[in-house]
Amino acid sequence: METRKIEVPVMADLFAIGEKPEYLFWVGCAGAFDDRYKKVVRAFAKILTHLNVSYAVLGKEETCNGDPARRAGNEMLYQMQALQVIEIFRMYEVKKIITICPHCFNVFKNEYPDLGGKYEVINYLQFLNRNIEDGKLKIGQGSLDNISITYHDPCYLGRANDIYDEPRNILKKLTGNLVEMHRNKSFALCCGAGGAQMFKEAEKGDKEVFIERTEDVLKTNAKVIATACPFCMTMLTDGLKYKNREKEIRNLDIAELIAQSIDL
């Protein structure tokens, strides 16, 4: 199937012609640099275009928002990066931000206000679920041929921000065969990469967290593991490879599943 090309609007270009988009789509470091997660960004951008949403990205002006620095304990670097981002947002009069990374969502929503950065911050699952409920985004149950799907709750969506229902509402419309892991929602196990663990060597122990969580996935016998975080996607993909199951079980982001279901 031929890949459909879309034009992603850039904030500076729109401002140059006097236009101000409703939403800033914050791509995030993983969406900009990680080859696997770039596919998630493309899928969500296609959905935004399909919905005719007024949005733009910062493009080359987007920088890290400082979350990894704060999680790793470098508060000064975090504040330097955050204040730089807040200044860019002020310049473009940003009021609403859509994020695909839960870590970006959390830092913008819960930590930037302390530095004067107050915005309406929307996780993409909230945005997608709202458009599905409003009838603007039409996806039908069975569009994935009743394939068994299990969902891994990212820590920064679930426990940190109580976003549990939206992903499940979406997945139930995509398939009639949503299978929960025995540890789910507030009891879900971390993928092992949060809190800057992604960027350091594993500590001593009998088993790495991502392997334990992958075993939770395998117990469901699901054919697809749905993720909603770049860290979770990386860790669970590694887990499937470690267990030699990457050819049998697909790890797909919810935006990718939606884009597939409506042939974008």
Topology:
Elements lengths: L10 H6 L6 E4 L1 H6 L1 H16 L4 E2 L10 H5 L3 H17 L4 E4 L2 H10 L8 E4 H10 L15 E3 L13 H10 L34 H11 L4 E4 L2 H13 L7 E4 H8 L3
Parallel strand pairs: 1-2, 1-3, 3-4, 5-6, 6-7
Helix pairs in contact: 3-11, 7-8, 8-11, 9-10
Structure explained in plain terms:
By secondary structure, this protein is an alpha/beta fold. The chain folds into 2 domains: 11-128, 3-Layer(aba) Sandwich (Rossmann fold), CATH 3.40.50.1860; 139-261, Rossmann fold (3-Layer(aba) Sandwich), CATH 3.40.50. It contains 11 helices and 7 strands. The protein has a 4-stranded parallel β-sheet. Strands 5-6-7 form a 3-stranded parallel β-sheet, with helices on both faces. The longest helix is centred in the N-terminal third of the chain and has 17 residues, at 75-91. It starts with 10 loop residues before the first helix and ends with a helix. The mean pLDDT is 92.
CATH architecture of the largest domain: 3-Layer(aba) Sandwich
Distance between the termini: 10 Å
| The first-level CATH class name of the largest domain | Alpha Beta
Shape: globular
Number of domains: 2
Structure in a nutshell:
By secondary structure, the chain is an alpha/beta fold.
List keywords for this structure.
264 residues, alpha/beta, Rossmann fold, 2 domains, 4-stranded parallel beta sheet, 3-stranded parallel beta sheet, 42% helix, globular
